[in-house]
């Protein structure tokens, strides 16, 4: 078992917490976009209250440990490892509850190059515990607005984890999914389940639009979020996202393996 102290040390050494690669400039830009209700930052969430930039800065200081000083406008952002550890504990508890009731679960990521392995191990463990891991709408095409205009992507699954790919792009291991913040993929998936008369997920696990899009529709959602992803923490504050774990979501994929072991152990799902 990986101890809490060892995991804290790993978070700092891998820059998953502490000073992270996400810049203060990027975080503040996201807060401005969210305050303006820009869909690139809201990720499918429709906030119940008006969130101004200062409100978001205070929230992120509380949830992540970033500096609450508005005069701090450059340099690396900071995540408090204690908040990450607390988030992982809450995350593991939700997985444990799902396993006990053998709830249907949906996994989806907008960071397949970094986080696929993390989610896939969790999907394997929940499946072994008797939870149906849902994979609807395989191959469905989705038009997503990007900075290059509207592009068509195709929904696919690798080891039970949903992602989108550009049509025709294939690679060994299926790790060629596209980075996206869009909530459209989870909406398409849930619509496909409803149309087919299947069981809707009782828990959605992921990041970006997968979490916010599901939470907005009233489905329990938990996920990982960086300092430039205020939507998940707003959703948590407003009660539509169950757990948002603050950490850098774009480090090397191998650096998430200790987190996987820790979460599975805490959820009593270690195999």
Overall description:
The chain is built from ten helices and nine strands. It has helices at residues 4-13, 24-35, 39-42, 53-63, 81-100, 112-128, 184-196, 208-216, 230-238, 257-266, and strands at 18-23, 76-79, 105-108, 141-146, 149-158, 161-165, 203-207, 221-225, 243-246. β4 (141-146) and β5 form a beta hairpin. α6 (112-128) packs parallel to α10 (257-266).
Helical content (DSSP H or I, runs of 4+): 40-55%
Number of helices: 10
Uncertain regions: pLDDT < 50 for 5+ in a row?
none
Largest sheet data: 7 strands, mixed
Order of helices and strands: HEHHHEHEHEEEHEHEHEH
Strand elements, count:
9
Please give the order of strands in the largest beta sheet.
4-5-6-3-7-8-9
What is the beta-strand fraction? 15-25%
- Global structural class: alpha/beta
Provide mean pLDDT, rounded. Answer: 95
What is the terminal-to-terminal distance? 12 Å
Backbone shape: globular
Radius of gyration, in angstroms, nearest whole number: 17 Å
């Amino acid at each position: 078992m990986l101890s809490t102290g060892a995991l804290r040390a790993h978070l700092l050494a891998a820059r998953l917490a502490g000073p992270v690669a996400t810049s203060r400039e990027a975080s503040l830009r996201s807060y401005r976009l969210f305050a303006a209700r820009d869909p690139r930052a809201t990720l499918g969430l429709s906030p119940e209250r008006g969130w101004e930039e200062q409100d978001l800065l205070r929230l992120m200081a509380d949830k992540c440990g970033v500096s609450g000083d508005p005069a701090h406008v450059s340099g690396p952002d900071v995540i408090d490892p204690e908040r990450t550890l607390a988030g992982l504990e809450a995350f593991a508890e939700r997985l444990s509850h799902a396993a006990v009731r053998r709830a249907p679960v949906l996994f989806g990521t907008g960071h397949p190059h970094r986080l696929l392995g993390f989610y896939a191990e969790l999907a394997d463990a929940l499946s072994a515990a008797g939870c149906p891991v849902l994979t609807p709408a395989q191959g469905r095409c989705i038009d997503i607005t990007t900075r290059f205009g509207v592009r068509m992507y195709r929904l696919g699954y690798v080891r039970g984890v949903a992602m989108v790919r550009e049509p025709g792009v294939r690679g060994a291991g299926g790790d060629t999914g596209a980075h996206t913040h869009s909530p459209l993929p989870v909406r398409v998936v849930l619509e496909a389940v409803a149309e087919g008369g299947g069981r809707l997920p009782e828990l959605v696990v992921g990041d970006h639009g997968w979490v916010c899009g599901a939470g907005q529709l009233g489905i329990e959602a938990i996920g990982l979020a960086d300092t430039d992803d205020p939507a998940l923490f707003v959703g948590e504050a407003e009660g539509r996202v169950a757990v948002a774990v603050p950490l850098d979501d774009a480090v090397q994929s191998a650096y998430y393996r200790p987190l996987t072991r820790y979460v599975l152990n805490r959820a009593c799902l270690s195999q």
